[in-house]
Design goal:
37% of the residues lie in helices and 23% in strands. It contains eight helices and 14 strands. The strands form four sheets. Strands 5-8-2-1-11-13-14-12 form an eight-stranded mixed β-sheet, with helices on both faces. A two-stranded antiparallel sheet has the order 3-4. Strands 6-7 form a two-stranded antiparallel ribbon. It is globular and about 45 Å long. The site of N-acetyl-L-glutamyl 5-phosphate (X2W) has 15 residues, from helix 3 and strand 4. The site of N-acetyl-L-glutamyl 5-phosphate has 15 residues, from helix 3 and strand 4. Belongs to the acetylglutamate kinase family. ArgB subfamily.
């Protein structure tokens, strides 16, 4: 059976109309589905309001205790509950989850190499039995970018990685399709030209795009997660706008090995 895993990024969540549209399209997807959300931009704004400095390295947030408190409030609270309420209003039976809820996602502290990321976790286990149980009972999990270590510690974990690891964990049981939704129509050849979507990227093209510096910033870990998912039996992986959900004819980037 097909399973759709949709990740929505912080730039979409922040804009009221974009969020409405993505949740409208998501709620119409038939069959089992999971929504994973980020919210990095909102966490940064909240940190600024509270006078806490934000530091990012390689697209990941250095997460000290104060930052962990902020991201828990923003991702696990405000963003997650707002999305769940909006999905319920669209007759989608959503259940909000952090990685600690139902022990859904376990992680360990990211090892200190060149940087100490603080309370950032690398995923070690996805509770597939629990996700299957929910999906088989027509419940739609809504997962935020928080995991836990099983000993009471919460960790901040990149939302793109949460989405790919959930897709990988469920790929044996379902035909998993992973959709990375953001504010562009796909991976762009030129960041200034919104219509320069590269419709197909395979491993060879990916290497060439990195060399040409076309894939940079947040796009680097996103594409890394895409290829990792495909290597681990995820059936299909796409990057595109909200319009790609439920519309196969919409322009988007299809990733293949
Ligand atoms: N070639 C590219 N095509 C599209 N976006 C790109 C590209 N290179 C860099 N980017 C940037 O990457 C951002 C998406 O990464 P990120 O902010 O991590 O995603 P998300 O919103 O899903 O969390 C885009 O907003 C864009 O500014
Ligand atoms: C460790 C780490 O960096 N976690 C991310 C989690 C949120 C996220 O991934 O949000 P977007 O998808 O909106 O970027 C962060 O705090 O920014």
């Amino acid at each position: 059976m097909k399973l759709s895993i949709v990740k929505i990024g912080g730039n979409l969540i922040e804009k009221e109309t974009a969020l409405e549209q993505v949740l409208e399209n998501f709620s119409k997807i038939e069959g089992p589905k999971i929504l994973v959300h980020g919210g990095g931009k909102m966490a940064t704004q909240m940190a600024e309001k509270l006078g806490v400095e934000t530091k990012m390295v390689d697209g990941r947030r250095i997460t000290d205790q104060e930052t962990l408190n902020i991201i828990t409030m923003v991702y696990g609270g405000l963003v997650n509950k707002t999305i769940v309420a909006k999905l319920q209003a669209k007759n989608c039976n959503a259940l909000g989850l952090s990685g600690a809820d139902l022990n859904s996602i376990k992680s360990v502290k990211r090892p200190v190499k060149t940087h100490d990321f603080g309370f950032v976790g690398d995923i070690t286990n996805v509770n597939t039995n629990m996700f299957s149980l929910l999906l088989n009972n027509t419940i739609t999990p809504v997962c935020c970018a928080i995991s836990h270590d099983g000993d009471g510690q919460l960790f901040n974990t990149n939302a793109d990685t949460i989405a790919s690891e959930i897709a990988i964990a469920l790929a044996n049981e379902f035909e998993a399709e992973l959709y990375y939704c953001f504010e562009k129509k796909g991976v762009l050849r030129s960041i200034e030209d919104e219509d320069s979507v590269i419709t197909d990227i395979n491993t060879e093209i990916y290497q060439a795009l990195i060399k040409e510096n076309i894939i940079a910033d947040g796009m680097l870990p996103k594409l890394h997660n895409c290829f990792h998912a495909l290597e681990k039996n995820v059936h299909k992986v796409y990057i595109g706008s909200v319009d790609m959900l439920g519309n196969e004819k919409e322009i988007r980037t299809t990733i293949t090995l």
